Amino acid sequence: MNRTLWMTTVAFVLGALWLLTGVAWAQPSGPANVPQILNVRTFKGFPDGDEQRTFLTTDDITFEATYYDPNPACVGELPVLPQLLLFNLEGQLLPSFEAGSQDSGLGYRLLFTDLFPGDLPAGNYQHMFLVRDCTGVNNFVSGFQTIRVLAP
């Protein structure tokens, strides 16, 4: 699958999400009163590993992001449907992983997913977080980030 087809596939998936539920892109530079997904990072090991984007198939991999929701109805509520979505570089959606969520106060919630050795075969992947707010109405996605998993 070439890059154009991959980009078309991703655009179609995100367009479908937008049409069905309304998608808002998370921008770290956006105003503070807009829900956002910020600080998307990957770590080797958990809970406090080294931040990096290249891993071995034998590594524990942690995906982490901060979700901000200023909606007063969502104060103290965890988001619905926090997920980590993985794509290969051809744009094929791979199995998704449910993300954990922890309230950090003042509308901020930590999103995280831990993958164990062998969960990802060797290859290059793009990942993003998908979150539905506590009202179950709006979806928010982070931007894509690429990681590489190598065989030992």
Plain-language structure description:
It is built from one helix and twelve strands, in the order αββββββββββββ. The chain is mainly β. It has a single domain, classed as Immunoglobulin-like (Sandwich). The strands form two sheets. Strands 1, 4, 6, 7, 10, 11 and 12 form a seven-stranded mixed sheet that branches. Strands 3-2-5-9-8 form a five-stranded antiparallel sheet, with no helix packed on it. A hairpin with an 8-residue loop joins strand 6 (80-88) and strand 7.
Give the CATH level 1 class.
Mainly Beta
The CATH superfamily is identified as Macroglobulin (MG2) domain
The helix-strand sequence is HEEEEEEEEEEEE
User: Low-confidence stretches at least 5 residues in length (pLDDT < 50)?
Assistant: 15-29
Q: What class do helices, strands and sheet pairing give?
A: mainly beta
Radius of gyration: 16 Å
Helix content: 10-25%
For the largest beta-sheet, the strand count, sense and barrel status come to: 7 strands, mixed
The portion of residues forming beta strands comes to over 45%
Q: What would the principal axes of the Cα set say about the shape?
A: elongated
Number of helices: 1
